[in-house]
Amino acid sequence: MTRAVALLHGWAMSPDVWTAVKENLRGREAYAPALPGYGAAPMCMPYDLDTVVQALSESAPAEVDVIGWSLGGLVALQWALEKPLQVRKLVLLGATPRFLAADGWPHGVAPAVWRIFVRELRQNPDALMRRFSALQAEGEEDSKGLTKRIYANRAQAAPDALQASLNVLAAGDVRERVRALQQPVLLLHGERDAITPLAAARWLSETLPRAALQVYEGAGHALPLSRAAACAERIRRFLDE
Predict the structure, then answer these.
(1) Which of 70, 133, 165, 226 is catalytic?
(2) Which pLDDT score is estimated for 7?
(3) Residues 116-131: pLDDT tens digits?
(4) 59 is known as an active-site residue
(5) pLDDT of 189-239, one tens digit each?
(6) 65 an active-site residue?
(7) Crossing angle for the helix pair 49-58 and 71-82, to the nearest 10 degrees
(8) How many CB atoms lie within 10 A of CB 185?
């Protein structure tokens, strides 16, 4: 039986970021749904992790492997926790259980930086996307070329959807709950990730009951674009185990 694989994109990004990965996941029913409010996907209200997961799970097969990148990784974790009979395995790229830094959690973005994102999203969203694209490419050998590819894969989404999903990143915190997650998890992370620090992935690998971590040297945050073939090959082996 061919197993379905759902690929969840990151904040302000299009599902098209998964095109090369999907092409390399041969023999699987891989699909990349848009998060609520992105592309043609309807908004969900209230817009939080629970309602996003509900929207995705309702349109997914009864059993599915879930691959999530960045914000999609946080959603994937919540999906696996809420629907353990539906989600068979998890693959998390550039993911974190909590995006914002806090007391006892230094592995996140400073709240002051998040507030700058909120302000720029309201005042000059295109300038923000260009800066965010450069941040995702930071650390890569061809950072300028990758920045252009990331920007070309930015989401077609209304400002309220971008703001609502940014709020999900700020509010999301599954650190305590992930200790109970029983599905096998593969963590793929860039050594030079400037969005979600490698330390967050190391924390997950040490905390999750059944996790394996692979670090890509010289890679930044945008693994679905910068390391598509390598990630797909590792994902195939993990899903077949």
Answers:
(1) 70
(2) 98
(3) 999 999 999 999 999 9
(4) no
(5) 999 999 999 999 999 999 999 999 999 999 999 999 999 999 999 999 999
(6) no
(7) 70
(8) 24
- Phi/psi for 240 (5° steps) reads -85, -15
Q: Backbone phi, then psi, for 176, in 5-degree steps?
A: -70, -35
Q: What are the C-alpha distances in Å from 158 to residues 13, 39, 83, 161?
A: 12, 9, 29, 5
Determine the Cα–Cα distance for residues 136 and 150; give it in Å rounded to an integer. Answer: 8
Is residue 6 helix, strand or coil? strand
If we measure between CA atoms, which residue out of 47, 51, 100, 91 comes closest to residue 72? 91
Return mean pLDDT, the chain.
Answer: 96
Q: Which CATH number does the domain 4-240 belong to among 3.40.50.1820, 3.40.50.2300, 1.10.3810.10, 3.40.190.10?
A: 3.40.50.1820
Among the listed residues 9, 107, 189, 221, the single catalytic one is: 221
- pLDDT tens-digit series, residues 13-26: 999 999 999 999 98
Residue 53 φ/ψ region, left for φ over 0, alpha for ψ in the -120 to 50 degree band, beta for the rest: alpha
Q: Measured between alpha carbons, how far is 10 from 150 in angstroms, rounded to an integer?
A: 11
What is the β-pairing status of strands 87-93 and 64-69?
Answer: parallel
Rg (the chain; Cα; Å) = 16
Read off the pLDDT of residues 82-92 as tens digits, 9 standing for 90 and up: 999 999 999 99
Active site residue 240: no
Residues pairing with 29 in the sheet:
4
pTM: 0.97
Name the nearest CA neighbour of 7 among 72, 51, 79, 71.
72
